[in-house]
Every structure is written in structure tokens, then in C-alpha cells.
Amino acid sequence: MPDGSAFYSTRQTDLIVKSKRKRFLLEFLRIILVVLIALGIGFIITLFVSDEPVAAFKALLTGPLPKISFEGGFHIKGINRFGNWMEESITLILLGLAVSIVFKAKQFSLGADGQLILGALAAGVVALYVDAPLPIHIGLALVAAMVAGFLWGLIPGILKAYIDVDEIVSTLMLNVIAIQFYQLVLVQWLRDPTAGFIGTPFFPKTAILPLVIPGTRVTIALFIMLASVFVVWFLMERTTFGYEIKVIGANRKFAEYGGVNTKRVIALSMAVSGIFAGLAGVHLSMGLLKRLTLNMSPGIGFEGIVVALLARNNPIGVLIAGLFYGYLRTGAQIMERSSDVTREVVLIIQAIIILLITAERLFPLFQEWWLRRKLSAELDSNVPEEEAAR
Amino acid sequence: MSFETVLASIFSAAFIASVLRVSTPIILAALGGLLSELAGVINIALEGIMLGAAFAGVMVSAFAPQWFPGLPVWVFPWIGVLAGIITGIILAWLLAFFHLELGADIILAALGINILAAGGTVFLMYSITGDKGSTSTLASPAIPNIVIPFVNNIPFVGTLLNAENLTGYNVFTYVALIMTVLITIFLYKMPLGAHLRAVGENPDAAASVGINVKRVRYYALLASGVLAALGGLNLSMGYLTIFQANMTAGRGFIALAVIYLGNRNPIGTVIAALIFGAATSLGAQLGTLSVPPQLIEMIPPAVTVIALVIYNLRKRAQIVANARKFQERAEKA
Amino acid sequence: MRDITKIYPNGVVANDDVNFSVERGEIRALVGENGAGKSTLMKILYGLESFTSGAIYLDGQRVDISSPHKAIDLGIGMVHQNFMLVPSFTIAQNVVLGSEPRKGSFMDADAAIRITESLAKEYGLEVEATARIDATPVGMRQRVEILKTLYRGADLLILDEPTAVLTPQETDDLFEAVRRLVNQGKTVIFITHKLVEVKEISDTVTVMRHGKVTGNVATKDVSEVDIARMMVGRDVFLQVDKAPQQRGKAKARVEHLGYISETGRPMLRDVSFNVYEGEILGIAGVEGNGQTELVEVMSGLKPATTGEIYVGDRQVARKNARQVRRAGVGHIPEDRLTNGVALEATIAENLVVDRYYRPPIAHASIMSPRVIRSQSEALMAEFDIRAAGYDAPMDSLSGGNMQKVVLAREFSADPALLIAAQPTRGVDIGASEFIHNQLLAKRDDGKAILLVSADLSEVMNLSDRIAVMYKGKITGVFQNSPDLTEEELGFYMLGIKEQTPEEMAQNM
Asked: Lesser CB count within 10 Å: N end or C end of chain B?
């Protein structure tokens, strides 16, 4: 630290918000604002391409809600849409949890895609080749998927922590390897020769996740997801491991000074993250598809990033952000079916959300601009020389 | 097909030609990625930029005859190329602006750009053509091949220089090769190239001698946008004459790996890109010999990871060796 | 530079109405302890920092230096403490970087080498123009930095602690080069806190303390001791009441400790001492003589190259930070923003970093938020940490309160051996008094305390014994008594005197 003493940051102290709650609230408002701006831009884009933009946007924003009708007695319509919402959200939340753990440790692992697909593969192999009664069979498949995700996360974790191999490149490459391996196993050994496309036979009944909401594909994966949210929350807030992850993310040198084994924790954080990506693979294979197919999840691993970002890596936030984003995606599918706008408009909205949320200087800049305007209005006659010259 | 024939086909001019063709988009994107990487701003948005440019090229060249009637027919594909390059620049500028001006994390912002391109292309394609899968309903032109005259009758050489059917390589392949040379010269012989490398290696040092770090990084990212755009255009206007949803299929990420595998210099990058291209071509060839292509396609990414591991282990060994050397010297003194 | 005042946005006054001038063709030393404001002053002169008020004149003309670029144009060059070089470039490429000689649109590599070699020859700064920087020794890198400024036409060179990273031989070479530069009409400002160097190289000397200039003298008129007095000053002399010492047995034993840095420089040489229960052992010395390394090695942040450290019965040299802490060592680090706190974490998270994994906070890896809260709140009350709450983010605290978080953690760990490195640096008078009293209370409680401080009056006020470090060695160990004078210690701090092993053993 140069002169000025090690203890004072050169930041504007009066701009620092002191209380945690107030900071949390500001952050929350910022995220809401970003989402609203993104939705607004999405709507403007829709205006350009659609003949019925309002109807289309209405489908996007209200589509996933089931409609309660009292005509001819009480019944609920559109439960399958609600189901779709939950199905999407389960995947997104599990992936968001996975991403949030590594991001919390300030590691840029992008490996959720590969971990998910190997998790699905491991679950699929157990489902097809192990013979066991219902709860045990599912349990074994779950464990297999979690182990697969863990190990596929452990590799880049060890490489990063102990040999300093850039985790972005290694995880992207491991994703390619995982996907090729998955296809290899599927094509060579698991495929059902009688099927018209490349995919395994359907799993036996004992290896299909039991349904929870009839008329949908919402299975006990819902409970697995909720349990995962709790587990990650507990992990981060109540265990020494979570504390270590947080402290490393906040200041790695401080963690080392305090006696934390930072290398071990970094490697493990990436591996533990893989567990939840693996569970997302279980949801896709044993819950939704009930078999393995060649192109099961193109690029879905990256979707977890937007969820984690929106949630600021907070597990409860991931639950909310995942539900929100799953809602948008489902709404988009309904919009696509019922109007002339494709669901990809949601991807555009998502991109805008990512860009605006990561743009850290955007809001301070805005704030500064606003303050300066206010100030210059007040002190109109008293503009500093430099400012006036500009 | 027997093993011998496969072997023969690998060492044939036709195989080399197919490797060149497959590698071209990766070479172009990787050279772009290399420029930004060397300037200290990793560009993960290569994938999205390629996709956006591939789409813009097809759409604009397909509609150009309606917009500019009266122009000679050969101009239209080039208008498409121009549109593709502009799209690449816009996407790269967006990334640069969010990162350099608004402080966005460059990796996350780039992922945003990728999603924007993936969603935006399909969205626009559907809005314009009513098709979500591809632009097969549009008649989009191709960028022509260049046939080198007088060599077609020479065995091997003819195939090598003018590809399998003696119809020549696409213009983009030649652009890729020329770019390799130009970028090598730029990086190592021209002042701005030296500034770019200095900015990437030690931004403080560059700034202290009056180099505008931010401006150099803008240039680097925009240049990477142009090159990645060319790579994307090669897919939709050279390789094929159609745009398909997600037609880059991870080539932008492969390009990124290629940079590291190629030890972050242009020649190494091109060689690494050719290795990836060879693996793809080989996969296709060996498929006939019941060697699964997936197995071959796993090799380049695995090699990339292993190469990084070896490189880092060597670096570490060197540091240890240096420390020991210093220590011995200190003990003597 | 006239009436320069620099106030940081957080209110820290780095330069307070400073007047500084330098004559053409002289070597001006600028000295002061860390935090005295000398680097800030020079950064202002080089356009790296803006100033709050005042003006800069060059050759009688008022000039506006708002960026390094302008400084370069005005003939001002600066050699930074951490070199500004591109490792993979050759020396010649580094020298010309930013204004390369050209042949058409291309760089003229031959011309760059020619220019470098002729400049090197002209000023006697021997370099290997075609060697890559990452393969060159530190001394040569520094010559490259000087050549860089000369190539850009600098007449006034600012050297920021140039000898900090050099071996004695390299230092001699540098001094020779500096003299040659001045003989050829250049002017040099030499920032340092090594007084020997001031005497050896400079014509005039400016001393700074607490952001103010405390002396402006011709070097030949003053002794090193005079300069030291101007640097340290007497205005912070606080008399503390010390209870009579109840010295126990040796708690920590350091035996023949040696440490060689990653760049191969021996930073600690055969350092041996004991710290006894109920004692404060002060380590005095001019900064950069191995104190930082001693603290890092003893607290487990760096592995000792040779030698042993015992805390109680446990050997802790080359053990990691947690093992060292488990052996009963507390550590108030010197650079608290880098090591001592995590700004993005909460106060509570900062308070428990040494104890989060064991009871009463954690049982079987499960942490109790209730215990964390009650412990944190108790500590915040005891140490008067003012914040919105125990879970307030660390970066919402003022500097003084951040400091207290570190103290609260390290004092409350109840260490058998407490290492306090520069504990009052950057702290106001009231807080220093508090810290001093806390250290004394620990001593009276029978703990062993190692106090490392660049502030001699602090060391002399608090310590029971004082060890002096010079060039990585202990040059003297003294019982603290009213007879022991600053002057006497100064001789050892500057390497003028050195005790024999027998003399030292008397006070071990």
C-alpha cells in the first residue's frame, strides 16, 4: 500500500451504504429494475415483429398460470402449463445452485453442462442395468448421478487449485468431452435398435421418478430440488465449508492468513457444485424424458448462470430467480403456440438481464450523473472551473 | 473399407483439403480471439459473434437483390459479407462497451452476447421467414471458390491446391491463410501490435509510457469481432449457403481452446486449429471403419486440457529450479 | 512544488501544505517512514495523482501535470518501485515501448537496439539490449527503467525506493550510474528510507513526516542520527505506565532462522531470539531489513528456508497458518487490507476466521450462528467497533473500526505469543493509546508479545527488551532501560555497531 496508510480505501465514504438490510434492499430493487427494463425492451422488440404484440406479451406473462374456472363446478384448466413451469424451474434451480456455489468462491467454472450430461448418463446406466425395487433403484441412480457430477467437477477443481489451470478453458473442454462421451456410449451401447431415433429404451418403472402432480411431468424431482435449495443454504450458511467458500471468494489472502486450506476448498467447491448439476441430469432423464436421447439438453448448463446472477448466488434467491426464469421460459412457449412471436424473445430478454446486471458501473454512473445534475442545479453559479471548461 | 484404405485416405491430398476446409472457420475465429486474448481481454463471445454474422450474411445477401435492384449479381454476396462483418463489430463493440465502460465482467457479459446471438438469430429468422430451423426458404448466394489454374491435371498437387473436386477452396480459406500472415506481422513487427501485447502482459507498464490501454483493448475486441464474423460467414456462405439455428455448434469455444493449445501465438493457433479440424475429418473417415467418430472428437479437447496441465507443471518446475539456483548462489556468497 | 495539499476523498491528508523544490543538477533525497506522504508527493509531480490545492512550477513556469504523459513531455521521468516492464519483450523493446523508432509502418528493431546501446553507453548503464526482461536480473531491469526515462528525454528523474530490491553490489552500481547522470546535467530525486544511502548519494535532503516537510537541509551539514530524529520526531512520544515485569519462561524460541525470497534474496540470516512470558520484545529497525519477512515466517505465511521456531513445545517453522495459530500464535498483520480483513465479508465473518472450525462455534463442521452472533457482539462491545450490526459488511466500516476488528480477533484468541506488526500504523492517537494498553495488559497477563514497529518511540515505550534488525540479521539485543538512548539504537539500526555473540547472549 502506498502512502495514505493501509487502512483507508480511497473510495467516497458517503456513498457507501452502511447497513446490510439497506444494501440488500437496494440490490433487490436494482435487480427488479433490470428485469423490468429487459421485459420492456422485449416488448418493444415484439412490437416490431408482431401483429398482436399485446396478446403475445399477455401470453408470455400470464400463460403459465393455471386458470380456475367455476363454470359447471370448480375445476382447474391449464394444469399442464403450470406443470411445464415447474419442470423448467426444477432444472434451472438445480443448475443455478450448482453455479452459485462456484461463483461464491469466485471461480468461473462453466462446467455445469458436462456435469449434467454425465449425471444423466450415470443415472441412465443404473436405471437400465441395475435391477432393484422402486425406492432403492431410484436411490442408486441418484447417487450415481451425484457421484458423476462430483467427479466431473473435481477434475477442473483440482487442476485449478493445485496446478493453476484456467477453469474457464478446462471446463469448456471437459463439456465437449462429456457430450462426446455421452453420445459415444449412447450410440455404441445403450441405444434401442428398434427405435426410429438414437435413444435408449424407456427406463423400467422402478427407475422413473414418481409423479407428484397428475396431468403434468412434475415428479418428486420437485422435492429433490427443494431439498437441494435447503442443503445449499445450509451448506453456505451453517457449515465450515460454506464459510470457507465465502471467505475465499471475499479475499483469498485473508482466508490463507486465517488458516483456511484454500486449495482444497476451491477444488471441492467445484466438485460439490457438480452434484447439483448431476441432479438436474436426473430430473431431465428419469423425470421428464424417462430415457436418454441424443440431444437431451443443448447448452442448458449456461442457463444456470443467469439464475445464479439474478440470485446474487444466494440459494433462496436461486429458488426465486429459477421460478421467475422458468415462468418466463414457459410463458414464451405458450406465447409461441398462441401468437406469431417465437419463444426466443426470452433469450433476448435474458441476454439483456445478464448485460445489465453485470454492468457494475452502470448504476453508480447513473447515480453520479443524477447527483451532479441535482448539484449543478443547486449551485448553478458555482461551477468549478474545470467543469465549465469542458 | 479396410484399414489400409482409410490410412491411404488420411495421407491423401483429399484429406488435407478437407482438413483445411473444416478448419477455416476455427482459424478465423481463433485469430480474432488471439488478438483480444493477447490484449488481456478474453473473448468468450466468439461463438455468438460467429452466429450473428453467419445469420446477417445470409439474410442481407438474400434480400439484397430486392433492396438494390440493378446491381450486378456478383455484388450481392459481398453485401452480405459486409453486413456480417458489421454485425460482428456491433456485437464485439457491445461486449467492449459493457466491459470497458460499464465494468461488466467480461466473461459474463460475453455469455450474455452469446445468448443474445442465439436468441436473436432464431427470433429474427422466424419473424422474417416463418421458419425456426433454417433459412432454406431463402435463396442466399455463396461466396465463390478460387480455382488455381493449370494445376488440376497434376495428381496430388491438383487436389491439394484445388480441393477434392478440383473446384478450388473458398475465398474464406484464403482469407484465413492471409490473415494468419498479416496478424503475425502486425503483432511482432508493427508498433500497435507491440502495444497490444504490452497492454495484455502488463497494462500498468503500457499505461506508464502513454499507451491508451482502454483504446487498445477496444481495437482488439473489435478486430476479434471482424475475424469471428468472417469465421461465421464462412459457415453460412462458403461451407453451406444456408443459415441454421445454432449452426456454429460450439466452434467459437473450440476456437478459444485452440488459442491456448497454440501457446497464444498466431502460428501455434493455426496449427492447433488444424489439429481440431483433422480430428473432425478423421472422425468422419473412421466412421466407415466402425471407429466411433465421437472417440476421435474427444481427442482435441483432451489434448488441450493435458497441454495446459503440462505447460503449468513445467512453469512451476522452472520457478522451483530458479529458486534453488538462487539459493545455491546465495549460499556460496 | 508550492503549497501542495492532497486530501483523499475519505479525508486522509496525505500531503499538508508541502513545499518542495529541487535545483537543476542536484541529487535530492526525499526521506520519511511509510505513510509520511513522500510517494504521494512524487506521484503528484509525475501526474499519477491529482492534488487538492497548490501549484507546480518547472523552471519558473507554472505547469499543469494531469497525466504521466504530460510529465514525460515536460522532461520528468519516474522509476517506480515495482518495475513497469513487459516480461516477454526484450530490453530494447521495453526501452522504446510507446514511441518506437519506425521504418515505414513497421518497427525498426535494429534502431531500437542501436538507441538502447548508445544510451546505455552514454550514461554507463550497462544492459544487454536483446535479452528478454524475464531472463534479466533485477539490477539490470532497473537500469532498463532508467534508460526508458532517458529515451523519453527526461531531465528530472524520480527514483522511488530504487534500492529496496537490490543487492549491495547492485546498489553500488546504481549509485555510480546516478552520479554519472547528474554529471551529465540530469537532476535526480531519490526516495528512500535508508539513511546510509542518503548520506552516500545525496546533495540535499528533504524529510517528511505525517504529510508535512520537517526538514530541508544540505546532506553534508547533518548526521544520520539528525535525519532519523527528523523522520521519527518526538511529538508522538507517549509516556505509558508500565507495571514491573513478571517475566516467565521462554514461550517462543527462534533458532537460526533463515529465509530466502522467491527472487533469491536472503531476507533473514541466522536470526535467533526468545520471547518470554510476560514480556514485550520489540524489534526495532529501519523498514525493509527483514522485519516483514520475520513476521510472515513466524506466522506461517511463508516457509522458513532454514532454522526452527518453537512455540511452547511445538515446532512451527514451515507449518501452515492454521497449525501455527493452533500452537497459540496470534498475528496482527502489517498490511491489514490485504491480509487482515475481507472487505466483502461481514464483520462477524471477519471476526471468526481463526476459530470458525472448532467449538464453541462449530461442532462437527456445523457452525452455530447463535454463538457467532453472541461472540461477535461481545467483541464489538468490548473493542468499541462502531457499525450497523454484527452482520454489517466490512467495507461499510471506517478505517479505525476495521483496525479494531483485527485487534478484537487477535487479542480475543488469547494467544500465548502475539505478533504485532506495525500495530498503530494509520491509526489516530486515541486508538494507538488503546492498542498500547491492550498490548501491555496482555504482557501483564503473562503472554509473550513480539512487537515489530518502525516507530522507534513506540518500541522504546512498550518493550521490555529490544532487538535491532539490520539487513536480515539481529545486530543487537538490549534490556530496555532509561539509559538506553535512541542514538545508541540508531547505531545498530544503521549497521554502524554490532554486538558480539557474547554481548548478545547476555540479554537473551
From this structure: C
